[in-house]
Amino acid sequence: MDKIALVVGASGITGSNLAQKLISKGWITYGLARNPQQDIENLTPVAANLLDPESLEKALHNIAPTHIFITSWMRNDTEAENIRVNSLMVRNLLNALSAKKSVQHVALVTGLKHYLGPFEAYAKEGFLPETPLREEQPRLDIENFYYAQEDEVYAAADRDGFTWSIHRPHTVIGKAVGNLMNLGTTLAVYATICKETGRPFRWPGSEAQWNGLSDVTDARMLARQLIWASTTDAARNEAFNIVNGDFFRWKWLWNKIAEHFGIEAVGFDGTIHPLEEEMANDAAVWKEIAERHNLAESNLDRLASAWHTDLDLGRPIEVMTDMSKSRKLGFTAFQHTEGSFYDLFEQLRNENLIP
């Protein structure tokens, strides 16, 4: 039988990389988004609003996917609203496809906030888990929209008989424009601004993150695990962490990134200097840089997500992620983190997003 994939959130970092990987493996691939990708060869775009059941029914009328990959979410002002909105999106999607009886597997991408807490309580006292983070660690006793999304998948799986997998990446490194959580591109844009204006490339985060061990997730690694779990019997109905497989300290990588851009790095100086404040007045600066270099995107907010970068780099603990569970089941892919960043920077230059 043909494998027919529906990638939900196909315009994002995770979804776009996944769609390309599926297509390269011969999958029939649909990409659902409010404003679908039009530039991925052989991806069939599907325009739909996950909060509008009628929109979904109409958009999916002639589509019967065998595999669903949910990589999309919507940020709201409170965690209670995050729960309401993001669980509703998953519920509406799976309800719209229920009657077709075509779905064999649903893969849901969440993240390490499963262990660290939601935005309102992220990595704060009372919610600091033991690291390395492991899948068997219980849910925190606090509201979290990741838990609500999982529960929607579990309920639909019980109803419709499909298998599922949950994927928990750390910070995802990859190219996307207009993405809400985009640390790699944010740092590339910040480094470019520093180089163009002569400002130092100053570490914005905490001492614990500067000195401690960390890891990240290359979007290509996440795509590989999503496909592996959806086609491997032993991986079904399981939750998996997914990171590159190596560790680093930011005090090392920060200097490497600075060297790459030919700028002066400034490390932790005893104070957190949030990027959201550092870049607060840089919209006009970026627009001038974009015009001078004829870049493809002059809107700083479409490239940089300083708020999320601050969230990650400002944590009071080091964060390491255990990958033993999927390794034991046969997922052996590995990605060197320094290479993840350099590959991203090269792609951003090739696509004329940074000079």
From TrEMBL:
Top-level taxon: Bacteria
SUPFAM superfamilies from the UniProt entry: NAD(P)-binding Rossmann-fold domains
Domain PRISE-like Rossmann-fold residues, every copy: 66-355
Identification of the protein by name: NAD-dependent dehydratase
Organism whose genome encodes this protein: Flavobacterium subsaxonicum WB 4.1-42 = DSM 21790
